[in-house]
Design brief:
The chain is 70% helix and 0% strand. It has helices at residues 3-6, 10-18, 21-39, 58-77, 81-84, 92-112, 114-128, 134-155, 164-167.
Amino acid sequence: MNSSTSKPNSAQTSSVQLLSRDRIGALIFLVVTLIYGYQITNIALFPGDEFEPFTARTLPYLLTIAGVVLSLLLLITGKNDEQSGATVGFNWKLLISFLVLMAAYGVGLTWLGFVLSTSLFLLGGFLLLGERRKSILFGASFPFVTAFWLLLTQGLDIYLESGYIFSAW
């Protein structure tokens, strides 16, 4: 029996140990964060804003720095799949269900408006994750979204889509 086929060599085991789900996720997050950071340069500034301490680019820059730091920390501290307890199987049905739910949210946002579509999105997400208690389903979706809507529209004066259905009234 050939010993090279029965046992992986040390190069194979070290590369397998380096490529864990934590590290792959951290690499993907790092790439997305760096692309986001590059896109910040496209944010237009008003004339004279380049000397202001807080501009339209300030918060995105801070988010980029935080994303890079967190992804690098996960790259350094990431464990092997065996050590981290990562599950081997993957629930493709749940993933596809969430993708359909997100697409429906995008369409519903235009037609139903922010409050109703976001509440239904959270309600559907909770249902997909297995929550069945009505007090949790309705107590965590509608009041939270309504409070968030009030904060954005009344407190910060940000316009949110009211929806075609409600605009007709």
